[in-house]
């Protein structure tokens, strides 16, 4: 028999009572044509302005180029011999020379820090054999990530018909990029000497905004200034995207100031916190402790209240194994499910042999012993 309850989070005793956030200023006024601010951990949208409008995106395209590269060719220490057709790309460049040897890792730094259009072509040609196949892979990855309003026509972001995305879709991509250890390290690098070259990151927020840890800038005549960044504070990570924005540095700073103050990260569940007990039949130990399996956080505005629903058996049969799933705790903001945590047993409870046995039990045990 299951028990189910709907309780206020503060009463669940999973973690300290949620504090009320300090009153924050309203959403910022931006210069961007499209913008979005997302909590990276939960995916909650904290601010949006025409975030699903399809637009040219310029060199922030290279975030997908980098992701596809490392997913298709995990050994980034492979040496790439540069072909003549990969050199002399239009626009920003890492100035590759035909015949030189560069590791894939070196090309990734040239791609993401110097925004090398030649690096994008070289990566695509090396990883997939030809640029067209690599672009197909980029579109397959976009579909896999749920980027429904995105289509790539090239690996570098130069203006081309059929090459577009949205602020919302680029935020989805950025969340994945920041989960990849190598890519997160590259996009957060301010400057480096690699591949016989010195690179300095074009993302000025790495110097200008405390807590900024990545990602990528872009510009073309059609797209205007495009920018995807990530910032972290007190364990909370936010991602901002602006498209066609003449004042992007200031806009991203304003978005982060707003997000961190208006939607601070709150504890919903703490791993290992024992908050329930379940009756156990068939054992001298009559109760088994139950605890949450994982930490869970969510960004909340002032006054928002989270409801927790508990799904847990009232009684179980011994034996009980520590760490086995006992139930589930679900968290809701209004009618929206915002997180779940498995409940697990915090101890072993063994099956005990009854102290007094009947005649049949003794006969069965006698013959088993004789066999």
Q: Would you give an account of this structure?
A:
The longest helix has 15 residues, at 248-262. By secondary structure, the protein is α+β, with helices and mostly antiparallel strands. It is globular, with a radius of gyration of 27 Å. The protein starts with a strand and ends with a helix. The chain contains ten helices and 18 strands. Helix content is 27%, strand content 30%.
Count of individual helical segments: 10
Class by SSE composition: alpha+beta
**CA-to-CA gap between the ends?**
39 Å
- Mean of the pLDDT scores? 90
Bin the strand percentage.
Answer: 25-35%
Report the sheet with the most strands, covering strand number, pairing sense and barrel closure.
7 strands, mixed
- The helicity comes to 25-40%
Radius of gyration: 27 Å
Question: How do the SSEs run, as a string of H and E?
Answer: EHEEHEEHHHHHEEHEEEHEEEEEEEEH
Order of strands across the widest beta sheet? 1-15-17-18-13-12-16
Q: What does the overall shape look like?
A: globular
List segments where confidence is low: pLDDT < 50 over at least 5 consecutive residues.
Answer: 1-19
Oligomeric state of this protein: single chain
Q: Count the strands?
A: 18
Features:
371 residues, alpha+beta, seven-stranded mixed β-sheet, five-stranded antiparallel β-sheet, 10 helices, 30% strand, disordered N terminus
Question: In a few lines, what is going on in this structure?
Answer:
The model is unreliable at 1-19 (pLDDT under 50).
Topology (elements, then pairings):
Elements: E1 2-8, H1 9-12, E2 34-39, E3 45-49, H2 62-72, E4 79-81, E5 101-103, H3 104-112, H4 117-128, H5 131-144, H6 167-179, H7 181-187, E6 191-194, E7 197-200, H8 205-208, E8 212-220, E9 224-233, E10 236-243, H9 248-262, E11 265-269, E12 274-281, E13 287-292, E14 296-299, E15 307-313, E16 315-317, E17 325-333, E18 336-345, H10 359-370
Parallel strand pairs: 12-16
Antiparallel strand pairs: 1-15, 2-3, 2-10, 4-5, 6-7, 8-9, 9-10, 11-14, 12-13, 13-18, 15-17, 17-18
Helix pairs in contact: 2-4, 3-4, 4-5
């Amino acid at each position: 028999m299951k028990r189910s309850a709907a309780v206020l989070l503060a009463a669940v005793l999973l973690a300290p009572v949620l504090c009320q956030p300090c009153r924050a200023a309203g959403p910022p006024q931006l210069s961007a044509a499209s913008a979005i601010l997302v909590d990276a951990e939960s995916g909650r949208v904290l601010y949006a302005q025409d975030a699903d409008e399809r637009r040219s995106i310029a060199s922030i395209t290279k975030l997908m180029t980098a992701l596809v590269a490392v997913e298709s060719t995990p050994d980034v220490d492979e040496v790439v011999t540069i072909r003549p057709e990969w050199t002399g790309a239009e626009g920003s460049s890492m100035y590759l020379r035909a015949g030189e040897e560069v590791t894939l890792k070196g090309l990734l730094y040239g791609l993401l820090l110097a925004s090398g259009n030649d690096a994008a072509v070289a990566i695509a040609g090396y990883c997939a054999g030809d640029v067209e196949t690599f672009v197909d892979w980029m579109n397959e990855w976009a579909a896999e990530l749920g980027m429904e309003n995105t289509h790539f026509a090239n690996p570098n972001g130069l203006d081309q018909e059929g090459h577009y995305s949205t602020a919302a879709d680029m935020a989805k991509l950025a969340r994945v990029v920041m989960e990849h250890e190598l890519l997160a390290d590259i996009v957060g690098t301010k400057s480096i000497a690699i591949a016989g070259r010195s690179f300095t990151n074009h993302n000025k927020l790495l110097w200008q905004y405390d807590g900024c840890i990545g990602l990528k800038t872009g510009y073309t005549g059609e797209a205007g200034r495009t920018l995807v960044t990530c910032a972290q504070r007190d364990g909370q990570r936010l991602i901002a995207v602006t498209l066609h924005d003449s004042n992007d540095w200031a806009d991203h700073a304003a978005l982060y100031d707003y997000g961190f103050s208006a939607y601070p990260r709150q504890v919903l569940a703490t791993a290992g916190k024992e908050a329930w007990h379940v009756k156990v039949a068939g054992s001298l130990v009559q109760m088994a402790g139950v605890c949450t399996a994982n930490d869970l956080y969510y960004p909340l505005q002032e006054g928002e209240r989270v409801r927790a629903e508990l799904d847990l058996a009232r009684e179980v049969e011994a034996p009980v194994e520590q760490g086995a799933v006992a139930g589930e705790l679900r968290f809701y903001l209004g009618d929206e499910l915002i997180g779940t945590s498995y409940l697990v047993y915090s101890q072993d409870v063994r099956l005990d042999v009854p102290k007094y046995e009947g005649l049949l039990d003794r006969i069965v045990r006698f013959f088993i012993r004789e066999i």
